[in-house]
Amino acid sequence: MAKIESFGCKHYRRKCLIITDCCKRTYPCRLCHNHNEDHKMIRHRTKYMLCLCCGMIQGASQYCVMCKVKMANYFCKICKFWTDSLGVFHCKQCKVCRVGNKKNFFHCTGCNACLPRELLNNHNHVENTLKSTCPICAEFMFESVNDVVLLNCGHSIHFACFKIYKESSFQCPVCLKSAGDTKVLNERIDCILSNNVGLNAKRQNYMCQVSCFDCQSVSKTIYTFLYNKCAKCGSYNTRINELYKTE
């Protein structure tokens, strides 16, 4: 006989199986269902569960009506969601349950998403930023069980995906703005260019027009082989539009 602690799946720990409203089959969770079926279940339509301790089929709730066992530490009667994870709350605006301590989050109406409280009045708004697919793995992030990070530009990406992606790029994969604070990076590039005056001396009579991905401005600057600085914000996150020779 399996230990009660072993009940559940790789996604959630709970002592019940859900009986799906769509195909009337039993699954440990909606993710297991969606992985094995050709359709997606609507979680809040779930009406019944099967207790894994006594086997009784009953209405969805936190406690078994027969053996009185608690199905999980957390149960949401709106989402029909069970989990033993600590720190879970239901957001009325998002209409889903979120992982984390409720007091550490706020719902941003501009982004239509729950965000960490430290971002209050300190982030760029992108409407429905979480209701999109991850630009790296293409998984829908709004109901994802994986951690999501909000970039400076306001776009979202899986934390694990971004950790790998940032090893080869500092740009947002959606809008190409700098994904984080590039002050140190810009200072390093300044140092590299100042220490290679001889390399760039041959190009002092060339100018270029650049578009800046960060501030969206167009400016002119002395052309260098690798890095061309925005004259407005000082960012090197630019693209050359035109190259020409001066007198």
From TrEMBL:
Residues 134-175 form the RING-type domain. Keywords: Metal-binding, Zinc, Zinc-finger. This is RING-type domain-containing protein. InterPro entries: RCHY1_zinc-ribbon, Znf_CHY, Znf_CHY_sf, Znf_CTCHY, Znf_CTCHY_sf, Znf_RING, Znf_RING/FYVE/PHD. It comes from Vavraia culicis (isolate floridensis) (Microsporidian parasite). It comes from the Eukaryota. Signal peptide: none annotated. Residues 2-69 form the CHY-type domain.
